[in-house]
Amino acid sequence: MPSMAGQEVIGVLVVDDHAVVRRGLAAYLESADGIEAVAEAVNGRDALVQLRRLATENRLPKVVLMDVLMPEMDGISAIGEILASYPDVRVVMLTSFGEVERVYAALQAGAAGYLLKDADPDEVAAAIRAAARGEVHLDPAVAGRLTRQLVSPPTGLASLTARERTVLALVARGLSNRQIAAELYISDRTARTHVSHVLTKLQLSSRTQAALVAIREGLIPPPSS
Asked: Response regulatory domain: which residues (predicted)?
């Protein structure tokens, strides 16, 4: 982005499926020193459309500020596609969900930051600036959870995130990965990842075993005789 008074302005694409949140973030960024909201998108797929448009206009943003759970294409699924097409663009996740598994998935996909939506506005700006410098910025609460996970990782059903418990219940109901994706408004790839994580964490080798665990733990009722 062009410099302003000798300072490079960091262009940001704001991605969130909630219009009030999206426009509020864009309005705040417009008032932040050295940061400019160059465009908005309603989900990961729309983000790719907007990035293509901005690239043709020579206005490609330095940072994408993106929600995690969105219809059509969620944020984590979008990270890989964004980085594959625009390797110089950095992605910062801003979400209401701070489960360790989501954070891991985002960082493994290439996210340069992970913030919760109750973060202070100044921290959002700090994360954007850090990402533009090539650094990784984590919400303090998220960083704390990651540390506790490394020090004393939970086992069994306690190791599953809330989303993974939901996925386990859907697996027990006999839903395929595609059906789980449709049920939870996530991509097929994300659904497969969730199922894989559930089986790995519970040390199971099949979906049938997962169904039995779900019944035993009361996540779903046993089949009627």
From this structure: 11-132
